[in-house]
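Sequence in, structure out. Go.
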Amino acid sequence: MKQSFEPDLFFDERTGDLDLGAIRQALRRKRHWIIWPTLATFLCVGIFVMITKPVYTAEAQVLLENQESFLTRPQRAEIPSENATNLDPESVASQVQLITSRDIARRAIKKLGLIGDPEFDPLAKGIGAISRMLILFGLKRDPTGLPPEDRVVDSFLRHLTVFSPTKTRVLTIEFRSRDPNLAARAANEIVALYLEMQSDAKRTRAKAAAASLATQIVALRSQLTTAADKVEHYRTSFGLLAGSNNMTIAGQQLADLNGELSKARTAEADAQAKAALVRELIREGRISEIADVANNDLVRRIAEQRVAAKAQLASESRTLLPAHPRIQALKAQISDLDAQLRIAVRKTAAALENNARFAAGRVANLETAVNQQKLAVARSNTDEVHLHELERVARALRDQLDSSMGKYQEALAREDSPATPADARMINRAAPPDHPSFPKKIPMLVFGTVAAFILSAAAVIGSELLAGQTTPPSKPPIRRPQVVGDDPPRPSQHSPLLDRLKDFDGPSAEIRPNLAEADLSDEAADVPATDAPPETQDMPSVSGRGARIVTTSVAESDAATEALIAFARSLTQEGRAIIIDLDAKNGQLSSLVRSDTGSAANSGERTAGLTDLLAGSVTFAEAICRDATSRLHFISFGSADDFDPTDLDLVLDALAQTYDFILLAASGVHASGTAKSLASYADFVVLVGAGDVARESCDEAVRELIEAGALEVAIIGGGRKQEVPELNVA
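Output:
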């Protein structure tokens, strides 16, 4: 049955490097170079983790943020915005350096009492001989000449690690020690000292600010006094005394004159209007309608007398005649009263006119006074500008003094305040760790053993690769033809032929042996293969391509075909083998083709094979088939009747990258010249002598193949061993 072709990928024949199979064999062969170093590493790591004193790491965390509140924030300071509390990476890194400073380390050493601790103090165990030699030659500093804190600070800082996770404002403080309680106390103490140092720094800044502000306040007070004196002296000298509404006296007088002038103008207009109205009413005779006339006492008395006289005249006129003296007297009295009334009205009108003239004169006087005051105010404005400048300077000094006084009071309060907050707070307090941070026994054992195994295996593989690359390929010696026994090789034993097929090296096209006279002798033919000369036994292995084997027969028969197929199947026990049918007439591989519905050979049809592959109508996967009973691959002749032999090299070169043995099944030696034409280009020639084939026919076929250029001829399928002529190389 035809199966899909799956080429093996264990070997890379093009590069000549070791393949995976060879690597596995090298690892298996040199496994002691891997096992013993791995075991040694496992034991060493195990001993190391057992005898090493455990180290514990305690961890505390601090969050950097503004801790000011409305109680501790200065009254004049603005509430910080959200961006004010954000720290850039440089600020966070600066805080890391602050925590790892030697000042904090000295204070922590003193509080933790680490002086004299063997883990930190180099003088706790004394100075060794090596250290004394180094100190003697000046290569090491003498610890006895250092203060106790400075002697311990270097070791303390080596046990301290401070870092900040990426894109956070959190500081992680780690402290390592053999005592877990000491590690936790040291981490917490470092955080406390860091927060205390920040608070002390704020108080120190407040104290310095208060001292600076005190000096500044004294200077500001002196300047303010001088400025205020200048203002008052200038105000007095130029008469710029302030009145109501923060106005100067000249300005206030001008304002008052403007008010009086407005009133005078109003009174003048009123008086002129009344005088004009009175004259008009007098001219019309409507004296009684004049309010000022009607309200005048004199006019009122005259009017009353006139009314009384008229009443008396009317009373007397009832009894007396018009010419009666009494009547005439009354009429004269009434006329006199009318004349007096007219005179009184005229006096009232004249008085109103006089009032109008008086109002006009007052307006003129006020206008003159206002103009004069304007000149005085204009002169004082120039002086007032300079006064305002002096007042502005004094006011600025006063404001600055007030601000400085407020800041000074706040600085004094912050200087003496014990609750000055630091710009950080502890968010994770260190606790004594339960498990040591070093050594990690299980991970170190596992990773150490795995690393030793990988490195040992890599060293073995590297040595094999270097050995394979540095060993130059040697050209095999030319050997005389050998005759192989009739029995095909068995899978359980290696025949000399198969060993030579595996170990064959060198392109056959470069070898041109010359045929000498052939003296066949039974003694030479009966020499076993193991007695062959050393140069025929120790041959280098093939590198770069599979061995090309041309198979042919003395006489074409079914027995010869079966012997050929059995030989090809036996090669699969030693490597990958493929057989190619070059006989278009007999179809030597037809017995290998199987299908579920019947073989193509029985139906008279040809399967896709070599000719179709050369024509490009099929691929290698479609042309290559696999034997149903073995690992043998084969390619049938194909559907065409003939092919161009020059194209065969392309197919053979491609197959040589995958297969170890390439068998070219040619027709019989005497049937066609295919076997003879390919003999000089093949690594081996296998002659099938199965059936009733005479010894002379086999010898003649061997002679013809050697004359055609065959390097080595192997006879299989015969009833006895054959003699072959010796090959002499020129």
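Check: The chain is about 50% helix and 10% strand. The chain has a mean pLDDT of 75.
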